[in-house]
Amino acid sequence: MTRTMTMTLKSVGTGRGADMARSRSHGTEIVRRLVGFAILSSGFVALLTQVLAHIAGH
Predict the structure, then answer these.
(1) How much is the pTM?
(2) Sign (positive/negative) of CA torsion 19, 22, 28, 31?
């Protein structure tokens, strides 16, 4: 636990601190999923572009 988290727990109480930690980790999970989706979709678009360029070339 970081110093910031310790100070947060002291100032807001254990219940609220735990809620904040949970919501932060939940937010991180959402961001991870969005980034993963963005990487996959950009890869898919690149692949599709290559296929279309290949078809157009013939």
Answers:
(1) 0.53
(2) negative
